[in-house]
Amino acid sequence: MSAGHSQRRRVAALAALVAAAGLVVASDTLHAQVSELVTWAEAMIARAPLTGMAVFVVLSMLSAMLAFFSSGLLTPVAIAAWGKLVTLGLLWLGWLLGGALSYGVGRYLGRSAAGAMIGAATLAAWEDRVGSRSHAVHVLLFQIAMPSEILGYVLGVLRYSFGTYIGVLALTEIPYAVAVVYLGESFLAGNGVVFVALGMGMIALSAGLYLAVRRRVGLP
């Protein structure tokens, strides 16, 4: 599957998710039901706040390693329990740990383990493209263009500098974490217009950056 086709599928899936969540926010009945679940989860977290934080960080870490799971779905609960600033920090930390662990899988467990996580064909395709562009600027561009759960495995297999990779990851994940937190806040507030506008704006910006980087590095 080409990079462009994969990106189009991701954009379509994200747009559908934002639209579905927007319908929930717009419906008083559905939003009230979801709010009850959030309140229940918040009460559970209040009984063991440190455990709740650890679980949220671990789930955020997994979302940075696995394409089929997103910690953004848990963000409204985290905001209700700890507020925006703490949620932002925990989300960013989890994503950073996920990137570090995916790098470790690629570097120390090897190509077969990394291929099992993201697909052997995907690993080979990206390894070929990233391998000849080892400058930090290129890694930054690839981090913007590639699905976030892929680059760590690829760079680990290539034995790329961990310090450079983790620095790039730490920088690029901040705006995404901020956006996800504000999405969660608008969802909690029941502001459907802001939620959909922010969500679709994020998707449009991400797609635009991808297209710009794609032209810059010559992705198919």
Shape: globular
The overall strand count is 0
- As a whole number of angstroms, the C-alpha radius of gyration is 18 Å
Number of helices: 11
Note the gap between the termini.
10 Å
Q: Summarize the amount of helix as a percent range.
A: over 70%
Question: How many strands, which pairing sense, and closed or not: the largest β-sheet?
Answer: none
- The SS-based structural class is mainly alpha
Instruction: Indicate how many domains the architecture comprises.
Output: 1
- Low-pLDDT regions: none
Tell me what portion of residues adopts beta-strand conformation: under 5%
Descriptive notes:
Helix 2 (28-47) crosses helix 4, helix 4 crosses helix 5 and helix 8 runs parallel beside helix 10. The protein has one domain (3-217). 85% of the residues lie in helices and 0% in strands. The N and C termini lie close together (10 Å). The mean pLDDT is 82. It is globular. The protein has 220 residues and is mainly α.
